[in-house]
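Lecture 7 notes: from sequence to structure.

We start with a single chain of 276 residues. Read the sequence below before looking at the structure.
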Amino acid sequence: MIISLITAGDRMDITMPIVLALKKAWFLIPIFILLVIMKTPWFKGLTGEALVNLGAKMFLNKAEYHLVKNVILPTDDGTTQIDHIIVSRYGLFVIETKNMKGWIFGSLNQKTWTQKIYRHTNTFQNPLHQNYKHVKTLESALGIDGSKIHSVVVFIGDNTFKTKMPDNVTYAGSYIRFIKSKKEVVFSGVEVGAIQDKIASGRLTPSFKANREHVKHVNDIVSAKQNANICSKCGSPLILREIKKGPNEGKKFWGCSRFPQCRFVVKVKNAGSSSV
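Now the structure, written as tokens:
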């Protein structure tokens, strides 16, 4: 029998390079964590909002246009969150930001729009419809004629519109131009100040708790749609399907009726199956 003996010196020779390598590479850990965070929808949303804020501060006269950010307002069914409101003598501009990449297809009256990245296709709620609730909430809360409130959707990121978009759907570099195109004075200086005060008094105080409760409200809506057999991604009916191949063969799941255009799925409750 041959017995290999590793001395303390040998062990030190083996472990020292590893320890030195770890010491030199420690700074890679926070970089890796940052890269992961940067890919999350939360971070992309913050980036988009920051770019819109920067554009407003740089290219809109602060004496004429007053930016209000991240407004959470109470509604009859919970809360609604508005990315940006710009108050001016030329009306209110309610801005919804979308940080997306790829080709974007959509039109004014379509319920869902389409994002295409190479061979991958995804659908999402028409952002004009999404912003409509924000506009109506402000209209009711402020007692303002809807014609004086302008809905604006701003796309941030490496994206290209592949269909003709309404004038109020723009890229980041163009939304300022749309706002400045409104020349008719609809509010006096006193009314502009009063509107700002109403928004400040009616909004929920910006806080982690307010944001958390709003996210919970949104998740509850998504869950209710799922329970009602409605696709939470595009609003189409869900169909009970069965996995035909693989380790989960025979298990059932709810799949969107618009498959393959929409690939949303949800597991069947109490069936031990999982989303695929």
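The longest strand covers residues 65-75. Keep this in mind for problem set 3.
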